[in-house]
Write a structure and sequence with these properties.
Blueprint lengths: L13 E5 L2 H4 L11 H6 L17 H15 L3 E5 L2 H4 L9 H16 L3 E7 L5 H4 L9 H16 L5 E6 L1 H9 L11 H24 L5 E12 L4 H24 L4 H7 L11 H4 L5 E14 L8 E4 L14 H14 L5 E5 L11 H19 L4 E7 L18 E4 L4 E4 L1 H11 L2
Parallel strand pairs: 1-2, 1-9, 2-3, 3-4, 4-5, 5-6, 6-8, 8-9
Antiparallel strand pairs: 6-7, 10-11
Helix pairs in contact: 3-5, 7-9, 8-9, 13-14
The chain binds 5-hydroxymethyl-3,4-dihydroxypiperidine.
Length: about 425
Amino acid sequence: MFSVKREDFGKDFVFGAATAAYQIEGGQLDGRGPSIWDSFSRTPGNTHNFESGVQACDHYNLWPQDLDLIQDAGFDAYRFSLSWPRLIPEGTGTVNQKGLDYYDRLIDGMLERNIKPFATLYHWDLPSPLQDKGGWMNRDIASWFADYAALVQQKYGDRIETTATINEPWCVSFLSHFLGAHAPGYKDIRATARAMHHVLFAHGKAVEAIRAEGGDNLGIVLNFEWDMPATDSADDKKAAHIADGIFNRWFLDGVFKGQYPDDMLEAFGDNMPKGFDADMKTVSTPLDWLGVNYYTRRVVEYDANLPVFPVKPVEGGLETTEMGWEIFPKGLENILTRISDDYTKIPMYVTENGMAEVEGMDDPRRVKYYNDHLQAVLDAKSKGANMQGYFAWSLLDNYEWAEGYNKRFGLVHVDYETQKRTPKASYRAFQGLLHNT
Ligand code: IFM
């Protein structure tokens, strides 16, 4: 059970659970087009055991029982993502009616259960035909994405509580175009520089398009890590500053200050798209809220042998999750107060937080992880951060991208053979928190 109490968070504070389309839906039928994760996961060496989201949790068919689980836990909201290739199989142009019908059923199912729909437009399943044209490296993605955003607003805007444009632009750009760990698997600095700008430009264009359709309550979901130097040396502090630049400052400065950090621009040099500065007003279009995803801290040292970004992650010595990520709740408090003090006072939601744990229904470490991070939210709130909600990642064990089904983040266990769902102790802990008001 948790030691934090619901009333500590305030009357209107939203509690929810989060998922993403490719990680749970399966249902690669009924006209859904191919995505970059289909081909990336079908390429040997990219994912654990060559696993893909082809079946995942079959949420496409089993969504009623999953919404029942959300309702029974007492959650106020469900953060889900829409699959662009399910709605527009080619990425642009013809719309797939069966895809539209699916999200109609899902959203109506939430409303029938008194669950607020928190929609995310892009959680990494880019339609493959758009990747064929360069994907996030192509500036035209801003208008492709804005058209898709407008469609979602037209069809569902009357029923959606909030819309987030992009989930974790760092992953869309740096992780997928510099580190090559996620689809489309590039390791190329020019591709990275372009993706890092176009992902935020597309976000801004989508916000403008949704507002033009009368939509409101719009945000973006950024992921943060708390970067710390391994020692007090000037070099290690510099490494932590650079790590912070790639992971945090690029996106915060872009979205809230309308300019990218000078040191990062210097690192990308002439790989940046020409004339990008003219887009910065769109990049920094005012938002209604900010989503903060937080999992861990990173301890780094300076390594002069690493060109461009001389940052080497080292072990920090804290307890780790099954992902090997250090458990550091204070980092969440630090990030929330930093954003509040240095960037913006708009409402903030923790849109993802949680841990991978070994398989099993009894997950006391996860219960403690959630409790300690919820306490960190309260600590940030007491220091002035405008906290409006918290979403656990994730409702279900699911497809953890390059890690396949090997890492389990769920409040609810999924037996992938039978698709049987079984609530874990952490699910019961949320139930205790949310029903005990
Ligand atoms: O599973 C992912 C999710 O898709 C995005 N944020 C981090 C989670 C855990 O790695």
